[in-house]
Every structure is written in structure tokens, then in C-alpha cells.
Design brief:
Layout lengths: L10 E7 L2 E6 L5 E4 L2 E4 L11 E3 L5 E5 L3 H6 L10 H11 L6 E5 L5 H10 L4 E5 L3 H13 L6 E4 L12 E6 L8 H7 E11 L2 H13 L2 E8 L5 E2 L6 E2 L9 E7 L6
Parallel strand pairs: 7-8, 7-10, 8-9, 10-11
Antiparallel strand pairs: 1-2, 1-6, 3-4, 5-6, 11-15, 12-15, 13-14
Length: 261
Amino acid sequence: MSTQKIREGDYVLLYLSRRKTYLVKVEKGKTFHTHKGFIKFDDIIGKEYGARVSSNIGIEFAALKPLLRDYIFKSTRKTQITYPKDVALIVMFSGIGPGSSIVEAGTGTGALTTALTHYVKPDGRVYSYEIREEFLETAKKNLRRAGLIDFVVLKNKDVTVGIDENDVDAVILDLATPWLVVPHAYTALKPCGTIVSFSPTMDQIVKTVEALKDNSFVDIETVECLMRGMQTERGRTRPHTLMTGHTGYITFARKATKPKA
């Protein structure tokens, strides 16, 4: 069975506990300091992912290969990120996969962009629209760290004015006024393409659904995804007291031909 060893320049998730993890770039000659001592990167290079490494005071960490969720949760943030529970539904209902062409707006700091790009690479592309240039710079850094920047086209443009691309597989929206984008999405999508909109309030989804109906979209559905963690310990297993509750509503629809007059 093949294994993968940690090389200089790789990103590693140093795992101490469920609540204490660190996403670090491994560089020769450098050290990473924590409240449990420091770890020399030279001691990590060449080890297999999953190996345990000790700090200078003997505290063990596991050197794990970062997952998609690690890049998302550890991303540099200037906006609220899309949670993995919502990302999973967006990916499933949008029908995207390797080779898909996607228009996304707004980029924010690139959490959802990172997830979408992960699923469409290497032959697909994400065209991500964002009106705030400072967000795009942060998103670029996060995408580069995740190794995905080559599969994204970042655009400092207002998607409510129009979409440049044509014949795309999906349009995915996370912005304040998604209903203004619906007519442009209809034009940009290929036949039977999908549109997905993530919105935190009911007022937004009502306007969006009305716009979808007015623009010949069908199979319209809105859902809310709640996820509750569990405390798993013999004799004390129960749901966690705290949970990430409402994050937003997700509306899906599919493009159909316009009805006959």
C-alpha cells in the first residue's frame, strides 16, 4: 500500500485535540510555537502523514494531511464562511463534478469557492464574481494555499449587472440580492443547468423564488440544513449542548425552456 510523505512546502494539520489544531506550511529550518511547546519542521519532513511528532517539552501532536474542510475552516476570513454542512448540499443539488463550469458570486474570502473548485478540477473552472477587491485578494491567498488557484478565474465585477460566461453548468450565489441575478443566470446556463442560492433570511428566499418562477426555472426547492454534534463517551453520550444552528436557506432550481405563448 502506497504512503505519502511530508515534503518541504507541504501544508500539515498539527492535531493536538478536537479544539486545538494548526494548519501550517512546513519549511526547513523553521519551528512552530504553541502553548504546548515548539515543533521543529525538520523533524516532520520525511515522515508519513499521520505520524506523531513531539514538541520540545514532549507533548505529542499528530501530523495529518489537511482535508478540504481544514482549508475552509482555517482560511483567512473577512466575511462569514459557508459551513461544510451547507457546502455539501450545494454540491449535491447543483450536480457539479469534475469538468463542470460554474459561475459563483460573491466570492467573499473564498471558502465556498475553495470547495467548488475542489470538485470541478482539473478540467473544470469556477468564475467567481466579487465587487470588493480586498475580499478577492484574501480569497486568492486562501485558494493558493489550498493548491486550487489555477482552476479559478476571480473577477472584480458586479454580477447583478450581468454574467460574461455562457453555457455554464451551474450558477451559485451567496449575496444579498440573488433575485437580481436570476435573469442573467438563465441566459448564462446551459439547457437544464442549475442555480443555487444561499440566503440567511426568508425575505430573500421569497424574492428569489418569485424571480425563478418568473424566469422559467422549474424544480424549485428551498431547504435548511441543521447539524448537531454528539458527545461520545461511554456512559455520557448525548447531543452537545451548543450547536451551529441556523446559517442560511438554500434554494435550488433548474433551467427549462420558456413556456409556449
